[in-house]
Amino acid sequence: MFESARLPQKMDKKTFKKLEPEIRESLLAPQLEIVENKKFSTVILVDGLDGAGKGEAVARLYGWMDARHLSCNAYGEPMEEARLRPPLWRYWRDLPARGETAIVFGSWYQKPLRDRVYNKLSDEEFSKELERIRNFEDMLANEDVLVLKFWFLLPKEDQERRLEKIKKKNAARHVLSDWAALKNHSSASEVGEKIILETSTGNAPWFVIPSQDAEYRDSALAQTLARSMKLKLADGEPRTVSAPPVIGGVKRKTAIDAIDLSAKLDRDDYEKKREKYQNTLSDISDTKAFSKRGMILVFQGNDAAGKGGSIRRVIRPLDPRIYKVHPISAPTDEENAHPYLWRFWRRVPRRGHIAIFDRSWYERVLVERVEGFASHEDWLRAYNEINDFENELADFGYIICKFWLAISEEEQLKRFKAREDTIYKQHKITDEDWRNRLKWDQYAIAAGDMVDRTSTHYAPWTLVSSENKRHARVEVLKTICKRLEEEL
């Protein structure tokens, strides 16, 4: 998960130096307004793996903000005074007054995170701890505390280099916590992802910050903080779910941006591979093992990316009695009168069958988010609700494959024009498709957030270049066959 934050995000020092005065102004203005009106206090949690530069980033914040109204609290193992009291006592003790801002290292997440990494907590016990934390943070928000949580993400190879440099300099070693050190990178990252997914709420959102480049990292932290404080000052509504799309003129990369659109397949290779995977799919779908499981396929992507063509190649070798294609459009009045997942629960297949969704429940965090059909609070909470929904399906035995089919703006324009010029394709192009093109960047950000927050081990996203239709169709078939072979 959080593939976007693992991409190399870089800002050159010249751009950063030019941006610094703007960053300072964007932070100071809302901070001083908060100090003056005392409507709320701010708590900033700084978390993530060792070596990600959390201390450096906070040091810069101190240089950019009014330090007289900042406090920094770092928590390690509780001292005797804290051990004699409930675990949350020391955090309550240090809460800032209205108008003030506190930065927290080693927050209330540290102990459950560490204990889960070391298997001192079961899954059930860990979930209960996270529920307590959610309740605590909801209560803080209801008492006019702006809670912002930042997770500094660092790929393993970068963490290894950073920790080696720290070791050589003999600096900051006292802050290293072995749960987050290199040997526990995988388990700490996995547990961290679970924490972010289960405790990022409208009241207390998590922001995942790419930390390979210090200038980009610190700019993203500062601008996200400034943006969140301004929003809270303006209307008191929940904050943004991600960093701004542009940091100092540098466009934030998402997992969608990283798709290699140059992938191609010539006709001969396509025919051979398509036939191979279609035969495999036909054979597997006819087995006794499959009859006890079942499958759910989700197709999302840019308009005109070829979802329909890919679906047709999937269903061609299948017995029509075992599959159903569900084209999803705007909800009906009846569907709008129910919770948004209701219409998808009604389409869940029986064991041994396949449900294919041409667009899906992900429209809540795509179209409904971008077009404003869902409130910020509604689409923000949808990530967790969707993960829970898919987890329940997977626990019952369904194999879930989700595909994002991607094309470039230029290729989309070509396909739109071709649809307009071809009589039997004209029904595929609508005024809405043209309007959506005007919001290309907004949809790209929304799709990147969607992949980051809902690509799980039980329902992973497969990002497919569809610039070349033959490549996309084979990639879809191959992925489905591979998942079936692994699961059955």
UniProtKB/TrEMBL annotation:
InterPro entries documented for this protein: P-loop_NTPase, PolyP_AMP_Tfrase, PPK2-related
Domain Polyphosphate kinase-2-related as annotated: residue spans: 22-231, 264-486
GO biological process: ATP biosynthetic process; polyphosphate metabolic process
Pfam entry (one): PPK2
Catalyses which reaction(s): [phosphate](n) + ATP = [phosphate](n+1) + ADP
Alphabetic keyword roster: ATP synthesis, Transferase
GO molecular function: polyphosphate:AMP phosphotransferase activity
Alphabetical list of NCBIfam families matching this protein: poly_P_AMP_trns (TIGR03708)
Protein's recorded name: Polyphosphate:AMP phosphotransferase
Native species: Roseibium hamelinense
